[in-house]
Amino acid sequence: MNLADSESLARQLLAAGYVEAPDIERADIAVLNTCVVRQASEDKVYSKLHELRAWKTPDRTIALTGCLVRKEGEELKQRFPHLDAVVPIGDYAPFVGELDARYDWAQGEPLPVAGRTGISHYVNVIQGCDHNCTFCIVPRVRGREVHVPINQVLAECRQSVAEGAREVVLLGQNVDDYRDPGGAGGLASLVRAVQELDGLSRVRFMTSHPQDLEMELLEVMATFPKVAHELQLPIQSGDDRILKRMARGYQVRHYRAIVERARQLMPELGLYTDVIVGFPGETEEMFLNTRRLLEKLEFDVVHLAQYSPRPGTFAATRWADDVPAEEKKRRINDLLELQRGIAGRRTRRWIGRTVEVLVEGSDELGRPYGRNRQGKRVIVKRARASAGDMVEVLIEEATPGQLAGTMAA
Ligand code: SF4
Hints:
Elements: H1 2-15, E1 29-34, H2 39-52, E2 61-66, H3 67-72, H4 75-79, E3 85-87, H5 93-102, E4 120-124, E5 126-127, H6 138-142, E6 146-147, H7 150-162, E7 167-171, H8 187-195, E8 202-206, H9 215-223, E9 230-232, H10 240-245, H11 252-265, E10 270-277, H12 284-297, E11 301-306, H13 314-318, H14 325-348, E12 354-362, E13 368-371, E14 377-381, E15 390-398, E16 402-407
Helix pairs in contact: 8-9, 9-11, 12-14
């Protein structure tokens, strides 16, 4: 989502006649787009701001946008006097106006923004989140949900395809909640409409929520060939008591029912999840329930995190962070080890099979790479292919993280 926001600001600056500097030393303006989902992300922003102190001159501008703005607001300027502007997420026009007033420069013709979009274009279809998971700071910093009208999403996608995009990624903190404000339907209708666009090769969406995902969406995924067979579906814990404490709104059996149905419709579905270990009150037995679930469901990728209290969240206010750091580490390492084996098995099953790869670019050895329909990264060996090509690749090698093979005849 931050990538999509950065892109939107970059487009507005380019349209106003600014150009992208090749490095910070040659730049006049630096904008930090910030994330606060974990303390580590937030600390990174502060250290970057400290670093920029040496770069700052009276002629240079430092601006900050993203989630930290909602969390800390204008106070940031007091803490960091060299910070010139604090820009709310998505509301970039006044900032661009201030820059124009500040830099009294001879503004020429706006520069063409075409070609900025890479092969993948990210579109925020929902801003904010209406859930209140007890560990999460997102609703506080991104606010309540605002849904972008379907026609506006389609217009943006059409434009990006005209500029060279071949894949559209529809984004929302909880993308399954999507509803067109004009009543034209939910996420399933949106995905169906986007995949009809001429010139587009693939549609992906993230992140799903087990409480809101509709079976109709799974049917749309299975029916239309441009839609990726990929679900980013965070479970967070495999124990119902912890899920309840997290206020996730579903139980393990609901989650399993979704996966079962999805795999019935798409046997090769790429399944990605998030898990937090060491949530307040998580006993060894509860942890083992999560472990068993991972063994049972065999995810392609599990994003693992150790619980860390975020000030201002319900969990941080209400419960002590009572799982010792050492124990959290042991639990996360145990799951990492388990998942490494599962991911290895999951990728090895592709060896000897032909997959469809949308080429995104070339790696440092000049080999084209992209993703298959299930979202797995694939390297194409001994072949020439340009970004945007859809190629058939016979898989010959597999590691837990990626596949590699040669172009099929
Ligand atoms: Fe945070 Fe996701 Fe829960 Fe929303 S659904 S509160 S973004 S964890």
